[in-house]
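Sample pair:
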Amino acid sequence: MTSNVEFNDLREYLELVRREDRIQEYEGVDWDLEMGAITELQCGVENNPLLMFDKIKGYAPGYRVISNVVNTPRRVALALGLPHQVSKVEMVKALRAKLKAITAPVAPVEVASGPVMENVLTGKDVDIFKFPVPKWHERDGGRYIGTGSMVIMRDPDDGCINLGCYRVQAFERNVATVHIVDRRHGALIRRKYWERGQRVPVAVVVGQDPLLWYASTMAVPWGTSEYGYAGALRNRPIETVKGITTGLPIPATAEIVLEGEIVLPDGESRVEGPMGEWAGYFAGDALPEPIFEVKSIMHRNNPILFGAPVNIGAHDLYNGACIIGSALVWEKLDTQVPGIQGLWISAEARSGIMIIVSIKQMYSGHAKQVALAATSGNDRLNRWVIIVDEDIDPSNIGEVLWALGTRCDPAVAIDVMDGCVGMRSDPLLSPEKRTRGEITSSKALVYACKPYHWKDEFPPTLRSSDELLQRVRAKFGL
């Protein structure tokens, strides 16, 4: 059962978190590394709070930064309108139901004005560093205004509006870069402008409500605007205003928006990166990137910069990407193979690297069929696919390790595939392969389930029956 989305902008979401969860506020923190270190430390705390930084060193009060915005199951549920007093797998099921209920996009509506237009800066008044742009990690190549950012572009062929989450590094008062991986929709749109010999109009939103941000991170079909997808998730249209420089539709309640153009590839550039990557390493290359020339800025009074840096921590949920990814992969699997009981993409293993699927084995070869289907057609590494029985909760890493330790015979229950599509930011990509441009990886399909041909003879577990446990819970209030 899903819930309604109870907010219309970032500030209403923050009020919801104050009521239903927890916000920890800090004052006097330095934008240079201290905000990043506090965020990293909190990722090691169970049920960690949303973090808000104010009175940041060198900045006036009211110029705020937030992080850990959607980094716990409870806050992901609040952001997506899901029940939060359920298991992680039940939350994934609820999100699947919510996504299935989308029958058509809900188009945005343009309004004459909105809070984002409370302050409009043009010409010499344009200054990215008016905001407390953080340097998140010690080895970062600079300050990143865009980590929880949303980049707006218009396809020059059909006019479709695309929203994508791409990192944005700040260099000078009106110079930044927008780093877009080649396979993303934004890179395809950018290429269309460049092939016409044109600069690329873009608007970078660095403070928006989390549901709209989530829409920008989802694999929405080509030609479908994320605005319509977010409107469908919210059951009401997103209100937009026309950008003053680009004419692009801007969320009317956005906190901070940078408008301008990405120059042609043979134009002015800056060396972008490195930055702490999705896998938890500095594995990507620092390379020249065409600059994003910022021509105007709009922002609300007392603006809030949305930070979503990558961190490594025992309780880091990777900004909820594991929940969204699990719902999308599970939905795809259900159209290909039967018997799926649960699916979880491990946040601990990082973004999409480990997919764990619980199945009710129905025939010989069923586990391998599921594993092959789970790893096909995804644009992530999917280095590990682990298949477990239906009595294993795939989101409980303790139960998964128990299955690996007691049901997986390495001699016969692991398949390895080499030469699969890889990523340049993969920390396991060797220097030699990187130099050759051989961007490939391997995958392991692991069958941590009872061998099908003698599963009925497998030793019984010592777990108590559900009936016994329920009776004891009721009797003793456990």
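The chain has a mean pLDDT of 93.
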